[in-house]
Structures are given as structure tokens and as C-alpha cells.
């Protein structure tokens, strides 16, 4: 029996994500951390809001939004934003048939999530989640413009300013909150569509606060702090007004998720647009993208890892390989090859900085080893590069270790090579983990790791076979046994690649939504390129099997292997370009003009972008 005199401990108030909204109770040690916006202290004294340490968020009433864009204007004016930047945007979806057409306007900014994926992903630690109001703030001065946070955010909240080379986003107007005011967008809203407050308190004049609405991305990714009201009757399908190739279909009631028990609106599921292209095309020009530096960086890095591993390990495992690959038998060619690998990896690392808005701050990439796979990738690939370089110099110039005792001098190249051999694959694993992004379903599959490691095997084995095969042929040595051995690794890479591809297609079909749209783009927009890659894969696989069982000798064998190498390079380069252009991110709708990539492209080609008020930069980063 309970003690009537015992004081009952009040239970914490939980959000609908199941977490305590009293942030000072969750993180009492952070109470004294000063609240700052973009490195400037927010006020000389603490605000007097009694709910200062509770999670706040926006409430959006879609029934009331009239798309006047007053919230956008107020936000831009308050933050002094240029025309091409907007922390808050109003998007549009439409459903039904004439004359019974339903239009929903959606005003969206940063949702200051409970589990901000932008904060975890950012390699420079430019993001901070504060106890004050639960605001997620970002410092553009720390940011070096890699744009990774724009990849991982499901809601397009971080905005990459390609003119300044940095990311910026909504800061919840915490300076206004400290002064007892509402965010600028909320104060400016004409239709009472935007409200703000403690996240699970339904604002006055509002009737419900649910977690989802048509076109809003899965809240389970980052647990966003935004609530919705949408009580009007909805049609079975909505279409976006921007160029995103998706629509929204109403689901059956039993499949509803991520809404409160009192939610009135039905749940919707993303589908690819029926009006999308149906015939397979080439579209070779569309293979180019902002990620071109990453295409080369990833391919060169994977080639370097695969080639070095084969050069270091094969002579120790195989007497056949030792004939051509060991320092004792082919020191000059081995040394030249190692220096070429070091040079290529140096180029790849420099090239990766071209993807940054502020390349001069590249050293900030390892500031977030605790959370960011980008930081871990840079750290491990940098360590691999350092050890590979040291191994190259020590192997080619033994005089560098001559001052050491005999045993350490012998062990030095072995230890350096082993370290590089371990860190290289570890770096590729970290590289793969960078692409496990729920907001980009096409990448969020083990297929990404499969293609990375298969590229290391394919490019490494074909390149080593070509270089040392030509060297052995010139010296009159038998090259067929070594090419047979390398063909085994090439076959392994090709088989891994094809298994990953088959599994990916099955995953895309089963997952649906943006994943299904990526599959549709693969089969239509780039359909002919995709088929051509399958044919080149079949050609490579057939030629590899010939080398595995009946390797041709002499000049004929070397000519055939060199052709395999050139086809493999083209095959992998096109495949990696597709990897970046096929992906369809989760996103909230944009307007017919602003935020629409088709309009932005038209503005650049027509000259309209020369007018700054249009809000489209002439050249993308």
C-alpha cells in the first residue's frame, strides 16, 4: 500500500517522440554554456522566459496559409539575406481535379530537431544544439562549405550559399526570444498559419498538433520539432509544383504512422510521378554535377587502396607474383608505381578540397571525429596516404633507415606497409558510411560499400596487371601466371559489384518513395547508359574468366589485358557519375519558381539570372 505522506515525484513531460522536453533536466551540466548566434553572445543577460530551457518549435496550420510569403520576407529582412538565400520557404502541392482542386501551401524552415543529423554529420562542428529553447544553431564562420549537412537534412533546412562558400540556416530568432518576442516569421504571418512555443503545447486558436502532413518527410529520421494542423478533406493524390519527380498518394487507414491519435488527416505515401519519362535515354550531358570532384576523389582513392594492397600483399603470398612484383626482382618499376600512387592520391586529396566553398580551411575536416563519418573518412584516408608515402620512400631509398639498428631497419617498411594496408580498407569503409544517409535512400544501402570496394579490386588489379605485365613483357618474362592471379581479384570485384546492383534494385523496389524514383530514373532518364554499363560488365566478366582459366601469353595477352583496363576505367567512371546524379533526396515542396531547379537552369540559360532580384546565381558551386 502506498504511503500517503510520501511525496510523489512528478513525471517529466514527454514530447510525442518520447523524450523529455525539459532540456535542463536532461543536460544540467550545459546550463552555463553561453548562448551564441554566429559566434556572438546573445544578449548581456539571460532571458526571463520561464520556459527558456524547454524544447520549443513551430506550429504550422496548413488550413490558414494563403501563400502571401510574408514569413519569407520577414525572415530575409531580419537576417539580411541576399535574394538567392532563404531560411524559410513556402512550397505548394495540389490535388483533385477541376473544378474541385485542393491547394496546400507549406511554410517550412529549420525544425530544430531532437536528433539533429546536420550536427552529427558536420565535420567542422559548426552546429550546436543549445538548452535554450532547444535551438540548433550553425556558425557560418566555422563552416568550410562542404555541403554535407545539406545532404543529410531531410527538410532542406541548411542552405549552401555558393557565393560565400558556406552554409547558413534558420536560428529560431533566439535573440528575439530572449527579448520576449516571437520569431520574425511568426509575427509577420497574416493568416495565423504560423505559431511558436513549447513544442507539445497546442497554441491558442489552434485545435491539433500532429507530427506529419502530406509531403512532409518521415519524422523518425531526426525527430523534428514542428507540429501541424490540417483538418480539411483531402483528395487521394497530391502533385508538387516544383520539378521533384514525386507525388503523394493517400494510404489506407491501417497503414498510418507518425501522427497523433487525434489526427484528422489521412497519411500519404510518396510515389513517382506518372508523367515522368517512360523511354530509356542516354542523357550523357546530365552525368555532370556539382559532385564531379567527388567522382574523381572516390575513384582515385579506391584505386590507390586496391593497387597498394595488391602490391604489398601479393609478393608475400604468391611466388608467382613475387617474380614481377617484389622489390628484389623489379625494384625500378615497383618504385615508379608506388610514386605514381602517391602522386595520384595527392591529387585526389587536393581535388577533394575543390568541393569545398572555403578550401583554405580544409584542416577543419577532422573537428568532429566523435560523430561525423566525414571526419573519420578524412582522418583514415589521410593516415593511409601518410603511411603509403612513408613506405614508398623507405622502400625506394633504404638509406633513409640505414641509421637504425638492423632489425628495426628491416621492420620499418613492413610495419609502414601493413599499416597502410589496414588503414586503406578502413578508410573505404568510412567513405561508405558517409553515404548511409536516410535522407538519400538510393545511397542508404550496403550497395554503396559494395561498389566502393569493388572499384578498388577492379581498378587496382587491372592497373597493376597492365603496368607490370608490360614491364615483364619488355624483359621477356612470362606474364600469364601473374595475369591469371590478378584476374581472380578482378573477377571478385566484378561479382561483388553485380551482386550489390541486384540487391540494390530489389531494395529500391521494396522501399518505394524516393528510392523507387531513383530506380525509375535509372531505367528511363539514364536507361541506355545503365544498359551499356551492364554490357561492359558482361564483356569484362567474360574476358576475366578467360584469363582465369586460359590466360593468353605474350603480346596477345598483354593487348587483351590493356583493353580490359581501359574498359574498366570507363565503366567505373560512368558508374560513379551515375551514383551521384541518380540519387533523389527526401525534400519538402518548393514553389513553381523559387527553389525549382528547372526554373533555375532556365534562368541561367536565358540570362534572367543576371537580374539579382530573381534570386538565382549565375554559376553553381
Short characterization:
45% of the residues lie in helices and 10% in strands.
Can you give a write-up of this model?
- The chain has helices at residues 23-26, 70-79, 117-121, 148-152, 174-178, 184-188, 292-317, 319-325, 327-353, 373-396, 406-433, 447-474, 480-511, 513-523, 527-549, 554-581, 597-606, and strands at residues 36-37, 40-41, 56-61, 89-97, 100-108, 127-129, 136-138, 159-161, 166-168, 194-198, 226-229, 237-240, 246-250, 268-272.
- It is an alpha+beta fold and 621 residues long.
List keywords for this structure.
Alpha-Beta Plaits; about 10% strand; Formate dehydrogenase/DMSO reductase fold; single chain; five-stranded antiparallel sheet; three-stranded mixed sheet; alpha+beta; 2 domains; about 625 residues; 17 helices
Fold blueprint:
Blueprint: H1 23-26, E1 36-37, E2 40-41, E3 56-61, H2 70-79, E4 89-97, E5 100-108, H3 117-121, E6 127-129, E7 136-138, H4 148-152, E8 159-161, E9 166-168, H5 174-178, H6 184-188, E10 194-198, E11 226-229, E12 237-240, E13 246-250, E14 268-272, H7 292-317, H8 319-325, H9 327-353, H10 373-396, H11 406-433, H12 447-474, H13 480-511, H14 513-523, H15 527-549, H16 554-581, H17 597-606
Parallel strand pairs: 3-11
Antiparallel strand pairs: 1-2, 3-10, 4-5, 4-12, 6-7, 8-9, 12-13, 13-14
Helix pairs in contact: 7-8, 7-9, 7-11, 7-12, 7-16, 8-9, 9-10, 10-11, 11-12, 12-13, 12-16, 13-14, 13-15, 15-16
Amino acid at each position: 500500500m502506498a504511503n500517503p505522506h510520501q511525496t510523489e515525484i512528478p513525471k517529466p513531460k514527454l514530447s510525442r517522440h518520447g523524450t523529455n522536453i525539459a532540456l535542463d533536466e536532461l543536460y544540467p551540466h550545459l546550463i552555463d554554456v553561453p548562448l551564441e548566434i554566429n559566434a556572438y553572445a546573445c544578449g548581456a543577460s539571460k532571458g526571463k522566459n520561464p520556459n527558456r530551457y524547454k524544447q520549443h518549435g513551430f506550429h504550422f496550420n496548413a488550413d490558414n496559409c494563403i501563400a502571401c510569403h510574408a514569413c519569407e520576407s520577414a525572415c530575409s529582412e531580419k537576417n539580411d539575406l541576399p535574394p538567392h538565400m532563404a531560411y524559410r520557404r513556402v512550397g505548394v502541392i495540389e490535388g483533385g481535379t477541376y473544378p474541385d482542386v485542393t491547394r496546400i501551401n507549406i511554410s517550412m524552415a529549420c525544425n530544430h530537431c531532437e536528433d539533429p543529423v546536420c550536427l552529427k554529420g558536420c565535420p567542422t562542428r559548426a552546429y550546436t544544439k543549445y538548452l535554450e529553447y532547444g535551438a540548433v544553431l550553425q556558425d557560418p564562420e566555422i563552416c568550410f562549405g562542404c555541403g554535407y549537412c545539406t545532404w543529410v537534412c531531410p527538410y532542406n533546412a541548411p542552405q549552401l550559399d555558393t557565393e560565400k562558400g558556406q552554409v547558413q540556416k534558420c536560428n529560431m530568432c533566439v535573440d528575439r526570444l530572449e527579448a520576449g518576442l516571437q520569431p520574425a516569421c511568426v509575427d509577420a504571418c497574416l493568416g495565423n498559419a504560423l505559431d511558436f512555443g513549447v513544442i507539445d503545447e497546442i497554441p491558442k486558436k489552434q485545435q491539433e498538433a500532429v507530427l506529419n502532413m502530406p509531403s512532409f518527410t518521415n519524422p523518425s529520421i531526426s525527430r523534428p520539432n514542428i507540429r501541424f494542423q490540417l483538418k480539411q478533406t483531402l483528395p487521394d493524390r497530391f502533385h508538387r509544383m516544383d520539378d521533384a519527380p514525386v507525388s503523394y498518394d493517400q494510404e489506407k487507414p491501417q497503414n498510418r504512422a507518425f501522427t497523433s491519435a487525434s489526427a484528422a488527416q489521412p497519411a500519404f505515401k510518396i510515389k513517382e510521378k506518372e508523367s515522368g519519362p517512360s523511354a530509356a535515354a542516354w542523357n550523357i550531358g546530365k552525368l555532370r554535377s556539382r559532385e564531379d570532384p567527388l567522382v574523381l576523389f572516390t575513384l582515385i582513392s579506391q584505386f590507390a587502396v586496391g593497387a597498394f594492397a595488391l602490391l604489398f600483399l601479393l609478393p608475400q603470398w604468391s611466388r608467382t607474383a613475387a617474380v614481377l612484383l617484389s622489390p628484389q626482382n623489379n625494384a625500378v618499376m615497383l618504385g615508379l608505381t608506388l610514386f605514381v600512387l602517391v602522386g595520384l592520391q595527392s591529387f585526389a586529396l587536393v581535388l577533394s578540397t575543390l568541393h569545398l566553398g572555403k578550401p583554405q580551411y580544409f584542416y577543419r575536416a577532422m573537428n568532429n571525429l566523435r560523430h561525423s563519418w566525414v571526419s573519420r573518412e578524412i582522418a583514415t584516408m589521410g593516415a593511409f596516404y601518410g603511411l603509403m608515402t612513408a613506405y614508398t620512400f623507405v622502400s625506394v631509398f633504404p638509406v633513409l633507415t640505414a641509421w637504425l639498428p638492423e632489425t628495426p631497419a628491416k621492420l620499418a617498411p613492413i610495419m609502414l606497409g601493413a599499416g597502410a594496408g589496414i588503414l586503406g580498407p578502413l578508410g573505404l569503409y568510412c567513405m561508405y558510411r558517409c553515404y548511409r544517409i536516410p535522407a538519400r535512400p538510393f545511397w542508404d544501402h550496403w550497395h554503396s560499400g559494395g561498389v566502393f570496394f569493388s572499384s578498388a579490386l577492379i581498378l587496382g588489379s587491372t592497373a597493376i596487371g597492365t603496368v607490370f605485365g608490360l614491364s615483364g613483357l619488355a624483359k621477356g618474362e612470362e606474364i600469364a601466371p601473374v595475369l591469371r592471379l590478378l584476374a581472380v581479384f578482378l573477377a571478385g570485384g566484378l561479382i561483388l559489384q553485380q551482386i550489390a546492383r541486384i540487391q540494390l534494385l530489389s531494395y529500391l523496389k521494396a522501399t518505394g518513395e524516393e528510392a523507387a524514383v531513383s530506380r525509375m530514373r535509372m531505367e528511363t532518364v539514364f536507361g541506355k547508359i545503365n544498359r551499356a554499363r551492364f554490357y561492359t560488365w558482361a564483356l569484362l566478366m567474360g574476358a576475366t574468366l578467360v584469363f582465369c582459366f586460359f590466360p593468353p601469353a605474350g603480346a596477345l595477352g598483354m593487348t587483351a589485358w590493356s583493353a580490359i583496363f581501359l574498359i574498366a576505367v570507363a565503366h567505373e567512371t560512368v558508374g560513379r557519375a551515375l551514383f551521384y546524379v541518380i540519387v533523389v533526396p527526401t525534400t519538402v515542396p518548393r514553389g513553381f519558381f523559387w527553389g525549382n531547379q528547372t526554373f533555375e537552369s532556365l534562368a541561367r540559360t536565358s540570362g534572367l539570372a543576371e537580374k539579382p532580384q530573381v534570386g538565382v546565381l549565375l554559376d553553381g558551386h
